[in-house]
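>> Question from a student workshop board

For tomorrow's exercise we were told to take the sequence and the ligand below, predict the bound structure, and bring the output to class. My setup keeps failing. Could a helper post the expected result so I can at least see what it should look like? The ligand is iron/sulfur cluster.
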Amino acid sequence: MLTGVVFDIKEFAVHDGPGVRVTVFLKGCPLRCSWCHNPEGLSPQPQVLRSVAGDRVAGQVFTSAELAARLNGQANLLRTGEGGVTFSGGEPLAQAAFVAEVIDQLNNLHVVLDTSGHAEEAEFRAVASKVSLVYFDLKLVDAEQHRHHTGAGNERILQNLRVLSGLGVPFVIRVPLIPGVTDTEANLSSVARLVNGMPGLQRVDLLPYNRVAGAKYAACGLAFQPTYDESRTLNPNLACFASAGVEVRVL
Ligand code: SF4
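>> Workshop helper replied:
Here is what the output should look like for this input. Compare the format with yours to find the bug.
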């Protein structure tokens, strides 16, 4: 049986998919988005977070059966709330085999995979094909810009998006709005053109920039070094989505 490392389990979550949910945050992410607001999710290993409030460990090891039992224990509540379970991170596909094994042990719960899409295609297929809905992050369509701001190109992400559109699993595109980076007309127009007409697309969600992104870095022993001007005002132009006939929401 596989084990996985989880850095948080959020109960009664209402922003991570339909209805009332339990969100499992898995440790480890291959990207390094300079705006990441979960730096404790980057390293795959459990780690000690140090702050004036004291030390705490981020990262608990579960077997797949232990995690599934904990989630199944809330099945009635989650069904009553028309919700389910969301796997997030970090990047949940950094522990793809573990996540797949947990899903296989769930009692018919609605499952959302919240992913950056930066994963091996085979692992992406294996997990995405098991879930009810995918939240797929699409940050930047331009490969060089993507590399500059996240530490990796987006070729794998775009390929997995194509895979997703052929799986028959509904999905929502999520764009974090980073001032002057992802909220530009060029990027949002490219997103609208790219996803327009994709089978399975439900809508595009735009997530306004979180200005407390840097707050947790020191506790992780990391430096917050944004590759953009945090003080810039967000300026998303939604007209490109309307003209492409793509439903869009600003959360
Ligand atoms: S993909 Fe998400 S978890 Fe990974 S670095 Fe980017 S924002 Fe952080």
